[in-house]
Amino acid sequence: MRYDRDTVTPEEVLSIGAESMQRILELTHYEPRKGDRFFIRTEPNKEYVIEDYRFNFSEDIITYDGDKTISYDDCLPIFTTGLLIDIISFMHSFDLRSFGNGWVLLWNSEEMFQSNEDELLVSFLWRALKDLCVAGKLE
User: Fold this and answer.
1) pLDDT, position 136
2) In terms of Cα–Cα distance, which of 137, 108, 96, 103 is closest to 120?
3) What is the pLDDT of residue 115?
4) How far apart are CA 76 and CA 22, in angstroms?
5) CA distance 1 to 11
6) What does pTM read for this prediction?
7) CA-to-CA distance for 2 and 45, rounded, in angstroms?
8) What is the reported pLDDT for 2?
9) DSSP E strand stretches across 28-121
């Protein structure tokens, strides 16, 4: 099956709110890696690729676009479908199934999510992750 895109958009990432986003990153122990895509919080219209990632004294530094550097705290990741699957499965097992033109996700044998008609898999997984975060289920 082919999809229009395999990553969340900056708009989707920003829609969760700063506090919830930080909570997801902390609870899942997300660590950026070379090759990951990201955007700068103040410039959500442009995406970049991490070329290098290092700890420098008291902050994490990302190198991108040749030799530009920025603090990790000023960036947000662009999640792929695969990364969202890893994050959702980090705390508990889940079952993801397709049906017709949609998806069903059963998480921890207690929470069920159903996609909207023709909703992209990546958008559905992002919505499920947001809902789990808001409901306090990721802890």
Assistant:
1) 82
2) 103
3) 94
4) 10
5) 25
6) 0.87
7) 25
8) 52
9) 37-40, 43-49, 52-56, 59-64, 68-71, 75-77, 94-99, 102-107, 111-114
Which residue, 59, 55, 51, is CA-closest to 34?
A: 51
pLDDT band, residue 3 (cuts 50/70/90): low
The per-residue b/e assignment along 42-80, b for 16 or more CB within 10 angstroms, e otherwise, is eeeeeebebeebeeeeeeeebbbeeeeebebeebbbbbb
- Separation CA 138–CA 104 (nearest Å): 19
Amino acid at position 109, single letter: S
Kindly give, in sequence order, each residue whose CB lies less than 8 Å from that of residue 80, ignoring residues fewer than 6 positions away.
6, 7, 37, 122
More confident residue, 18 or 75: 75
pLDDT of residue 121: 93
Q: What is the mean pLDDT of residues 103-130?
A: 91
Q: Is residue 101 a contact partner of residue 118, using CB atoms and an 8 Å limit?
A: yes
By C-alpha distance, which of 24, 29, 27, 26 is closest to 12? Answer: 24
